[in-house]
């Protein structure tokens, strides 16, 4: 079976190369001509671990700018195009609709797998616009930037949404077999309707934001109650309960990045769309914003000598280059807005995104350094 992947971005290229390593012939498409040319020359600039090595070792991998070529040549076609957030929190799936349009006039049997995050009910709408010979599935990934290949290999769950009217045991088995070849851990496949699968995708992240926010709320309470030194001890004790667990149960900055905030708001938007007016999604989103104010106060109060602050990183997650909804970056901005001087450890991947705006607004109160050792004055380290 030849696998096509429309949208070879951060996630798409990782998934494609793991499929190729598993023994499949792969054809990907992307709108960036230079990027496609580089992929065919086995060149890629990325900070995702293992991607360059996987591309260099690939033998059955090709790239094109033509989506129709992918659809014509492949049997199983994934799309991992971008679905940005709209003002109401829901996902803009116009890029997916563009791919749907590429299936017009296709008469052969094709299996169209949506791998990007969509709103509950979207896959049903895509199927309605397509002929019965094009069968739509929903198969999102659960990954984090900076560890995409690892997360794909060690996924806790493979989520597969299937339109029951077009259910096909053969292709479902093929998709399951694909993940069994990719994963180094036991493959646990959960099959359900496409709409329910779409709910699961955003609901999981909504649960994680709730857990993170509970831990942060409890830490804020303990700090206010004079038990600052015991925050970690309290959370460790609570996490020992097997019903709760220690993962995501830490006090610190709020959740951020390109996934958790968006999925949380999307879940809130979906709740409202079906008439559930009071939902955790909105509550948690509001708390996350309020908690960022507590974090600013916490670090200012800790810095009793009013020293310049030092950040080892300002990306949303250490080791990544993403500042989208980064709580670390927001803390840096808030401290600068409050008149403090800030040093940031230079990471060229991040610096290029923020240096002009920060220097223009804050002047010499913000400085980028190679390491803390390069600073000639005493600083207060923000240990996030």
User: Sheet with the most strands?
Assistant: 8 strands, mixed
| Structural class label | alpha/beta
Strand order of the largest sheet: 3-2-1-4-5-6-7-8
CATH architecture of the largest domain: 3-Layer(aba) Sandwich
The total beta strand count reads 12
As for the number of domains, it is: 2
- Shape summary: globular
**What is the helix content?**
40-55%
Catalogue the unreliable spans. none
Brief descriptors of the model:
single chain; 384 residues; alpha/beta; Rossmann fold; 8-stranded mixed beta sheet; 4-stranded parallel beta sheet; 45% helix
Write up what this structure looks like.
The protein is an alpha/beta fold and 384 residues long. The protein has 2 domains: 2-192, Rossmann fold; 303-384, no CATH class. Helix content is 45%, strand content 13%. The protein has 14 helices and 12 strands. It has helices at residues 10-21, 33-40, 51-57, 67-73, 94-102, 122-128, 148-153, 169-182, 194-224, 231-240, 260-273, 280-302, 327-337, 348-362, and strands at residues 2-6, 25-29, 61-64, 76-79, 110-114, 134-138, 158-162, 189-192, 309-311, 342-345, 366-369, 380-381. The strands form 2 sheets. It has an 8-stranded mixed beta sheet, sandwiched between helices. Helix 13 links the parallel strand 9 and strand 10 (342-345). Helix 1 (10-21) crosses helix 3 and helix 11 packs antiparallel against helix 12 (280-302). It is globular. It starts with a strand and ends with a strand. 39% of the residues are buried. The model has no long low-confidence stretch (mean pLDDT 95).
């Amino acid at each position: 079976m030849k696998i096509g992947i429309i949208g070879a971005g951060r996630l798409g290229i990782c998934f494609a190369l793991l499929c190729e390593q598993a023994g499949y012939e792969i054809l990907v498409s992307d709108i960036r001509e230079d990027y496609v040319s580089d992929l065919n020359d086995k060149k890629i600039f990325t900070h995702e671990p293992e991607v360059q090595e996987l591309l260099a070792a690939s033998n059955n991998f090709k790239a094109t700018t033509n989506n129709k070529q992918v659809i014509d040549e492949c049997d199983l076609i994934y799309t991992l195009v971008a679905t940005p957030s709209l003002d109401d929190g829901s996902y803009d799936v116009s890029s997916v609709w563009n791919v749907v349009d590429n299936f017009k006039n296709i008469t052969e049997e094709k299996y169209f797998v949506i791998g990007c995050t969509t709103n509950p009910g979207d896959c049903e709408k895509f199927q309605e616009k397509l002929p019965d010979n094009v069968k739509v599935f929903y198969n999102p990934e659960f990954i984090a930037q900076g560890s995409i290949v690892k997360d794909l290999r060690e996924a806790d769950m493979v989520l597969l949404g299937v339109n029951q009217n077009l259910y096909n045991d053969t292709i479902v088995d093929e998709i399951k077999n694909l993940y069994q070849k990719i994963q180094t851990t036991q493959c646990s496949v959960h099959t359900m309707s496409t709409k329910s699968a779409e709910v699961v995708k955003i609901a999981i992240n909504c649960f994680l934001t709730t857990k993170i926010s509970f831990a942060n709320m409890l830490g804020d309470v303990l700090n206010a109650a004079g038990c600052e030194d015991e925050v970690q001890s309290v959370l460790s004790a609570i996490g020992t309960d097997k019903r709760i667990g220690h993962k995501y149960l830490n006090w610190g900055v709020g959740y951020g990045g390109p996934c958790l905030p968006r999925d949380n708001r999307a879940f809130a938007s979906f709740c409202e769309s079906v008439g559930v007016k009071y939902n955790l999604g909105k509550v948690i989103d509001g708390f996350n914003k309020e908690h960022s104010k507590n974090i600013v106060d916490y670090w200012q109060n800790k810095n009793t000598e009013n020293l310049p602050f030092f950040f080892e990183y300002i990306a949303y997650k250490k080791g990544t280059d993403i500042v989208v909804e980064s709580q670390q970056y927001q803390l840096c901005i808030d401290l600068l807005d409050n008149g403090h001087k800030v040093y940031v450890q230079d990471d060229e991947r991040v610096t290029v995104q923020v240096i002009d705006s920060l220097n223009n607004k804050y002047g010499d109160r913000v400085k980028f350094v190679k390491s803390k050792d390069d600073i000639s004055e005493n600083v207060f380290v923000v240990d996030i």
